[in-house]
Write a structure and sequence with these properties.
Two copies of one chain form a homodimer. Chain A has twelve helices and 19 strands. Chain A has 456 residues and is of the alpha+beta class. In chain A, strand 4 and strand 5 form a beta hairpin. In chain A, helix 2 runs parallel beside helix 3 and helix 4 packs parallel to helix 11. Chain A is globular. Chains A and B meet through strand 11, helix 5, helix 8, strand 12 and strand 13 of A and strand 11, helix 5, helix 8, strand 12 and strand 13 of B. Strand 12 of chain A pairs antiparallel with strand 12 of chain B, so a sheet runs across the interface.
Chain lengths: 456, 456
């Protein structure tokens, strides 16, 4: 709408500056040394809600990092949109690979570079600025509730409790989330599913102390060699995961569904070039889009053990560690898979080592309906803003909370993401295109408008 | 001899204090931040040589850490013993596992705890104190030359050059080394062989940047998973090493030789209990003593990649690294094995990753003759000091320099070690029994005496 575009045009630079202020706060939820910054970021989000038109906003403490809640009620009869997002970010390391400071945002070639630029401060903040656009132009059509958490990057372990305790306060008609990506500005898309997650840590103990690899080597099991063997055994020659029962509940898609999924524009050569890999890798019998969209995975996210310093040390270490996570698809459950993983690692441990497996956190996979009013409203909003209909896709990432909305609040979710797969989220030089940021702020009000109209 | 025992008895405490002064210097050769301490330690060794009776001692600079040379010439017609040892030590990490400071030596239950207590400051220093005992009691029977280096723990890369340049200065009849262990004080032993070493570093690169394991997981090869698979493939189900050609030159011992080797006192249950392992591990068809003595090995000494910090990070990392070393047995050569290893890792790398292999350093395996005058003199010296004949053993460790003595100086070596396998060398809480320290100082003069007599 004209008034929205004009208001956005007049306030573009300020909207960018305000996002930069948020990005400067190192709200790393995984690392306890940033606890104070996470709290500071929560306060900043609360203030921005009030300044943008919320009648009410508050910091809600949890056992972990706080949740920021805010609301703008316009009409008891109007539908209510619950906006979910998160203000916490992934750790920034390895720092040496950043071309500019992770918490010192800059714009280069039309892209905002900073940790959290896309995931999720940039996308979350679009909703707060969209509220401002609608509020200041007196064109709000839905009631809006914000629930912005600070523990998404560490498993949202306290959000479920918060939902249980605040069912009334969170009453809404739909959950709207911008924490995913679309294909491109030329090909807007809407995610119709997300993978779940089971994140494990494995500790392998060999001898009770570090040993000299000459004196004991060859006669005492090396825990690093043992761990590598166990990890290698998790995939067969076709890159299928070998953990017994792992695929039992995996949904088999129809040829039509797979065809639709593979219809999305995708250039394998471009993909390989962007990553500088000689070849892609994955489960035999599936395309790259299927491997990331509808198939489960097992990836080592971190491994360490023995001497990792400068030079050489001939040690046969006492311990070896690995952080291993699995992405899950519909019908697999985080707890079941975590239990299978634990049993597999403990069962396959030779008598010469001890294996301890602990579960970090999990999230359930979700599939969102495409025949709902909310999905249609989102689809129409994107069509209006981009001038073409969005393509339905399956996202490889996980937003554990989406499954909880359904189970605890009985609410469906619309995943309207404006990021791009090459935004380097969780990596050095995370970026978010300035154009996508503004496009999101432009699109969101249309969602509220159409959702209100279609709900009548 | 009476006079030696009396002198030792009168100076015991000072001999211990002087060793403590050496142990307090953190002469870690692998870590450049300790360069100054390594130099300081060299100077301290030089001073102790002069104070103990050397006519001459000097610091010999190299491309790396300096070599300390000292000599005490008694008679041009007497045989000359070249004593080799090293004053550098392994890194002390992991520091948190030490019960007392690694460079703050203490005596607990009759054991000296400190990095280098056994390997090799404690054993090297026995020879300097043994010189003092003989010099102060006017009972020197051989000329003595000391060559104490500062790079043994990092591959002695500059020692070969030093030998080439100083053949005249280093002229001798035998090399005497105390840098190995014996079975026990009840079972003195003499090493008749040492394993060689090939130490490699592997770098596996997947995508050109760290990726989100949800967005890309399952479709892009994870370099950690790839590295684990390559490492796992290095051993077959019988724990034989699978690198093509690896065993081609491995010497096959006769049943008699194996029988003699296994005759050494060894208690498997005690061994397992000491290490708190449920079972030993190793190459099928060989005993523990054979696995460490006459068979080659492949151990991962260190591995790292991805996120290793607190909490969880769902990253698909760009790179993974491992330090891998192989212990070699007679007829295998470090360069050949290093080349086979490199080819194996590079050949087996899938197109989805890049593998870079670099060689850190190597050393050749050695077998020392048991029919030489020097071996007999050492055997008699141990019999005299311990009251029983020493058992010939094969050591699992490596002293690369021993092979160089033969190839460059044409000298045989006697490995008269006084350490114990459970001295935790290269590990936290390295120790050396006070009794072994004194026993070494008591034994060494007998070697000089018998070697001079037998050489006549």
């Amino acid at each position: 709408m004209q008034v929205w575009n004009e208001y956005l045009e007049q306030n573009k630079q300020r909207f960018l500056n305000e996002l930069f202020d948020l990005l400067r706060i190192p709200s790393v939820s995984a690392d306890s040394q940033y606890k104070g910054d996470v709290a500071k970021c929560a306060e900043a989000v609360k203030q921005s809600m009030l300044q943008s038109g919320c009648d009410h906003a508050e910091i809600c403490p949890t056992e972990g990092h706080p949740i920021v809640y805010g609301e703008k009620m316009v009409d008891a009869n109007a539908p209510t949109v619950l906006v979910y997002g998160h203000y916490d970010v992934q750790p920034a390391d390895p720092l040496e690979l950043w071309t500019s400071g992770p918490f010192d945002p800059v714009v280069k070639d039309g892209k905002i570079y900073a940790r959290g630029a896309c995931d999720d401060k940039g996308q979350m903040f679009m909703h707060i600025k969209a509220l401002e656009v609608m509020a200041k132009t007196n064109s709000l059509s839905c009631n809006i509730k914000f629930m912005i958490e600070g523990e998404e990057e560490v498993g949202s372990s306290n959000l479920g409790i918060f939902l249980e305790k605040n069912k009334e306060k969170l009453k809404a008609d739909i959950v709207l989330v911008s924490d995913t990506s679309m294909i491109s500005m030329e090909h807007p898309s809407l995610e119709t599913g997300l993978r779940g997650l089971a994140y494990m840590e494995v500790e392998v103990t060999g001898p009770n102390r570090d040993l000299h690899s000459g004196v004991y080597g060859g006669a005492v099991q090396n825990p690093i060699n043992a761990l590598c063997k166990m990890i290698a055994s998790c995939h067969d020659e076709n890159n299928h995961i070998t953990i017994p029962g792992f695929y039992d509940k995996v949904e088999t898609l129809s040829d039509e569904q797979r065809k639709a999924l593979n219809a999305a524009p995708f250039d394998l050569q471009e993909y390989k070039t962007d990553l500088s890999v000689g070849d892609v890798w994955g489960e035999k019998g599936y395309t790259t889009l299927e491997r990331t969209g509808i198939r489960p995975t097992l990836d080592v996210n971190g491994i360490w053990g023995g001497y990792t310093g400068e030079g050489a040390k001939t040690v046969l270490p006492s311990k070896a560690f690995a952080k291993i996570s699995m992405r899950l698809v519909p019908h697999q459950t985080s707890d079941e898979i975590a239990a299978m993983f634990q049993q597999y690692f403990e069962k396959n441990a030779p008598a010469s080592v001890k294996v301890k497996v602990t579960a970090h956190h999990g999230g359930e996979p979700v599939v969102t309906p495409t025949d709902s009013i909310a999905y249609k409203a989102a689809s129409k909003a994107l069509s209006t803003a981009f001038g073409k209909d969005p393509i339905p896709t399956r996202g490889g990432g996980s937003i554990p909370i989406v499954a909880l909305f359904e189970s605890i609040l009985g609410l469906k979710t619309v995943l309207m993401g404006f990021g791009l797969d090459n935004d380097n989220i969780h990596s050095p030089n995370e970026k978010y295109d300035v154009a996508n940021y503004y496009k999101g702020i432009e699109t969101i009000p249309y969602f509220h408008k159409y959702f209100a109209e279609m709900s009548k």
